[in-house]
Amino acid sequence: MGFLYFIGFNMAIGKNKRVSKGGKRGKKKVVEPMSRKEWYDVVAPAVFKVRQCGKTIGNKTIGTKLAADGLKGRVYEANLADLTGNTEAQRDEPFRKIKFAVQDVQGRNLITQFHGMDLTTDRTRSLLKKWCTTIENVVHAKTADGFTLRLFVIAFTKKSQGQLTKNCYSKTRLEKWVRHRMTSMIVKRTASQDITQAVSDLTHDVLSDALFARCNTIVPLRDVKIRKVKVVGTPKLNIADLMKHHGEVPASVEGVAREVEAAVEVVETKEEVKA
Questions:
Q1: Does the pTM exceed 0.85?
Q2: C-alpha pair distances (Å), 240 with each of 232, 246, 257
Q3: pLDDT tens-digit readout, 195-205
């Protein structure tokens, strides 16, 4: 017959080093986070009618941490219709989003440069239809002042005049011909323009209209659009060249304070509460 022996180990109280002991520490001073912040104006290039496209917030300069270091490189997005100031919907302006990247900080103004353009998802999906061919192309083009752009072009085939068949599919060789002509036109046109002229052509549909006129002779097309533009390469930052695209920076415009009505206390009687 065997016997079982149980040996218990008791740890001495206060010997566990993992248990933290509360020391005599003072309470941490609570600082309001907004007291260390400053407001800045986001300034768009001079090619756009509305220059001050938004406001942003950033930390103040504290010690060796400069406020400008935390602001440079930020990317902001604005609607093209808001930048042009057009209240009426003209073509695709309400459906275009423009991106700006902060290059320099001058006082409370953030000097930006064009960073990209995009067509909204709902607008892109509204162009898709059945019984036709979607032609897409990606083009890399370089401007005269050293900016490298990646353009995404989209187009759709349509029926010829008097066509009776249900579909309007195109042949592969014609699609390749359209892509080749788009690429050669965009590269040649962009090489003779600076970034300001290139952005103006993109936002005013000058480039897409030229592509439609030249490629529509190969195969009947509809809705030739520059779907997206990315800035994939930039030249070395030169403040003088940057200010040529901005001109005179507008003064900061502060918001008008709202008049708040005084609150009126309403005392309810017991009879009103019961009712």
A1: no
A2: 22, 10, 37
A3: 999 999 999 99
